[in-house]
Structures are given as structure tokens and as C-alpha cells.
Fold:
Amino acid sequence: MDKRTAFNNRWLPLLLLLPQLVITLVFFYWPASQAVWSSFRIEDAFGTSTEFVGLENYQVLFSTPAYYQAMVTTLIFSTAVTVFSLSIALLLAVMADREIKGAGVYRTLLIWPYAVAPAIAGVLWYFMFQPSLGMVARGLRGMGYDWNPLLNGNQAMVLVIVAATWKQISYNFLFFLAGLQAIPKSLIESAAIDGARPARRFWTIVFPLLSPTAFFLLVVNVVYVFFDTFGIIDAVTGGGPAKATTTLVYKVFADGRLGGDLGGSAAQSVILMFIVIALTAVQFRYVERRVNY
Amino acid sequence: MAGVTLNTVRKTYQGGVDAVKGVSFDVPDGAFCVLVGPSGCGKSTLLRMVAGLERITSGDIAIGDRIVNEIEPADRDIAMVFQNYALYPHMSVYDNIAYGLKNRKTPKDEIDRRVREAAKILAIEPLLDRKPRQLSGGQRQRVAMGRAIVRKPQVFLFDEPLSNLDAKLRVQMRVEIKKLQKTFGVTAIYVTHDQVEAMTMSDILVVMNAGEVEQIGTPTEIYRHPATRFVATFIGSPPMNLVPGTMQADGSVRVGEAHFRLPPHGFVPGRTVELGLRPEDIVIGGSDNAFDMKIEFVEELGATQLVYGRLDGAQLIVQVPSGSVTGAGGTVRLGIAADRLHVFDPATGRRAV
Structure:
């Protein structure tokens, strides 16, 4: 597709691009370069002076078992949240796409959770599952289940996964629903006449046609679990117990803000940045090629 | 092979809109049936009910001897060509054509043989590896046809399949579809709002209006003996002229100064009627039922010309060979054969004689 516009004046295109460039520079490249710069320095205990130490922050990081632990935690957390939020949202969208009574109300209700701020959502889930006060926690205990995410790391992990998934489902649902509604009805009808049952229609027609949407959501969700789940984790578990729910992004906050290690924290965020860049690049390179038609 | 029978088929949508109001007709095995009518007349709804895409509110639809009211589209042994072709965009042309066979668990080598055979018939063999978006409108139309014929169904259903093509392709595909249908001998139901397609393709023509059948017959019957005023004006281009007149004791209809003598039956002197004259049935200088018309306007069509004038105040269009009339202003003497006249009851719109 060739949609070139020829500008006679060489300054006009630059001027038109300027707002976008300024925003990108100020809000992305500037902080990112600051992070890279800080990651090469160490601040003294009282924050009065800093010293250039080269790659020392990175060396320290990769020799700490806790860092690898955070990576594993992140891997489990991100995989679970992405898989669950995408598949549940797809299921709900397929259900909501059918012609049912009150579809409008049903769809609106499903979209609402997205309007809840992450920290509020976190507090909500925290209260529901809080061992001594929470309604759900009481119910679980009443059924004889030893529920205590404050002490049990696996239960804490389940809790943050559920909370983070719940938060993301609405967003995914919205896109899946829009994607489903963009598929011409005649394609489904044609497949029905061609002898395909509903399940086969879904897997051979609907799902392939939805895959560009699914791919886009995959990228967005991975970025979401890597960065935006900070609020939920902070509100629900605070990274605990015993760092069982400390993901990479939470560790950046814990080490930098709580631990006062700005250099080390900066190094972590630089690594995190590269991980996400790499993941996105891989997804675009290998997955997108298969979903285009 | 099987025919299609509709028995008082009715469709009422939620909210009480009657899309189809009790339609009955038979399409014999191997016949090409065209449903024609203006937008919103219920013809597409009717077709979709035969396909099983739309539920029937009441009545019965049978394919062959089998009532299919409750049978899934997949099990009706039909193939349908949609207006937008409905090709699966993520599949190659080959896979598009093979899809229905794969769903029916046809052996692989047989699928391959049949897909290639269908592609050969439609001259789309070089396109088998392409995706639908790489095809032109006419090629997509062929692929959609291929998908229909490869299954060797009992019935072909067409939902305005040519309306997205340009005029030239439309004429070409019209002939091809008709030929294919004759070759395979498969019963076909074809929905269109284009009266040329309706006249040229059909063995049986069903004219619909406002959810009801106005007339069923061969194209010639419908053209020569339209049962209602609606059919008379819908079929034929330019449309039939209708002028108000009064039946006379001498067995003629009087329109202003002019008298039109009719075949002598069903005559009630004094009755007010609408007299129908097809533009192409009116001749210059004819001795039968002669009358004079002042020429208001002439349109040149190349082979013919359309002469506009008035008959007792009502507009009249006359189609005559080119060069018969020169310019507006003059008066021309016209005539029409008695057996080419149509008489309708102005109140019911039905044929009166």
C-alpha cells in the first residue's frame, strides 16, 4: 500500500510530527535514559553523593538468588494471568456475541471492572480474601480449607493472579467482542451450510479471523502483567509472604523505594525494559506472521 | 435430486413484523426458480428459510419428500451463494472450495479430484493457491460458485449473487450460472430484484410484493398476462402505461376520445377500469385501436426511441424503432392490437378481463 504525500516544504512535516516527538522524548526517552544512567551509579547510604560504578549494579543483580526468584515468580504470574484473562474473555465474548435478551446490559456489566483503578481492585480482593475479615476467606475456612494467603505463598500467588486476571478480562472482552462483531455474519452462515457444526465453525472460521485481535491482546497483556500489575500486587500482598509474589516490577519498587538502592533498582528496570522489548519483538516476528490473512 | 415445496410459509419477526405472509409454491426437480420483487418484499427472507438460516414461524418447507422445518442447514443438502460471496478470507481458493467436503469427511483424494474438477469447469484453476483478497469481483463470484457446485447438492440457493458485479460481467455470469444449472440439472432458487435476470434465467418466476406472492408462472406468462397491476408495472422496461378508462356497452374501453376494443369477455358497461398498454406493444400508424398522441419529448436509445406523450391526461410512453419519430411538438397516430391490452380493477389492482 503506497499512501505517500509529497510535501514541498521540508519544515512542515517536521512541525506536524513535533508534538508526538516531544511527548515521546519527554515521557519515554528522557526517563529511560535517566534509568540507564542511574543504573551505572551507586548512591551512598544517606543519598548525599553518587559514584559511577560501571556495570557493578548488574553484576550484583545477577549474583543474587532473589533476582532469579523474582524472574520465576514473574514467569508464573505473567503466563497465568495472560492465559486466563485471554481465554476467559474470549469465552465471555463468544457468549455475549449471541443474540440474547438484555445483551446490552450484560455487555456493559462485563466492561465495568476495567473502570476500577488497580489499587482499588487490589484492596477489594484483599478485603474479600483477608483471612480474618474477608467474606470469601470465611467461606473457604467454613468449608474446612486452610486459607491464609498472609502465610501461604502459593495461596498469595493464586490471589494476585485472580485479581490481576479479573482486572484484565474486561479489556480483553471488549476487543474480542468487537472482533467477533466485525466478522461478517454470512461467513458463519456459509460455514453452517457447508456442514460445519458450531464448535468446528468456531475453530476453523471464527478463531482464525479473530487471531489478529488475539495477537494484539497478547502483546498488550504481556506488557500489562509486566508493568501495570504493580498496584494490585502492592495492595493485595505487598510482594509477600516471603517475597512469594514479588515480580520483577514489584522488586524494582521494593529495592529502589523501600530498600533505597536506586542504582540497583534502575538496573532492574533497564533489564525489565529490555525483556519487554524482546518479548514484543519476538511476538511480532513469529506470531504476527501466522495471524495475517 | 429433489424439488422444493413451500406450503403457507410464514415469517413474523419479534415485534410483529410480517416479512412473509403465507407463501405456497412448488419448484419441480431441476427447475430454475427466480424470486423477484422490490427491496423488503420478503424474497431474501424466504430464501433464508429454505436454507435454514431463518426459522419458519408457521407452514412447511420440503426438499424432496422431506419436511426440513427443523433440520439444520448442514443437513438440508443445499448450497448457497451469497451476495457478498462470503468467501473465507483466511483460506486459499482451494481450501474455500474444499471446506464443505472436508466437513463431511470426504476422503482426501476425492476432495482433490472434485475441487480440481469444479475449478476446471469454472476456469479458476490458476487461482487455486490465491487468497480471496487477491481476486477480482468476478473471480470471487466464480469461487463462490465453485464452492456450491463441488458439493453436488440437491438445491442451489442464490441470494442476489450478481448485484456486486459490473454490468458487463453480470450479463456474462448470468448466462454461465444458467448453463451450469442446466448442466448439473440441480433445482435452483434465485433471488434478485433485477427483472432482466428474472426474465432471462427463470423457468418459474415468482413475483413477490410486501411478503406475498403476486404471481407465479413462466416468464412469458407473467409478461403477457400479468395477474395484477403490480406485476404489470414491475416486469417490463420501460414499465407498462396505465390509463384510467370506462367500459362501454359496445365492448370497448373509452379513454378520453379514444376507444380500445377488447376481446369480448368479462364486460360490465359503465365500470371504471385501468387500461394497461406496454410501450413496446404500441405501434405507429396501426389500424387497430388507433388514437392520436401529441409528442412531448423523445429519448433516443440507439436501436429504439422512447416517445413521451399523454393519453387523456395520463402519461404514455411508446417504444418504437429508431427514426420513426422526429422531435417533439408534432402529433403521431398510434395503434395497439386488442390482444395486447390489459385491463385492471383500480380498487383491487387485479386483472379485470
Summary: DSSP finds twelve helices and two strands in chain A. Chain A touches chain B at residues 184, 186-187, 189-197, 200, 204-205, 208-209, 293 (CB under 8 Å). The domain at 60-291 of chain A is CATH 1.10.3720.10 (MetI-like fold).
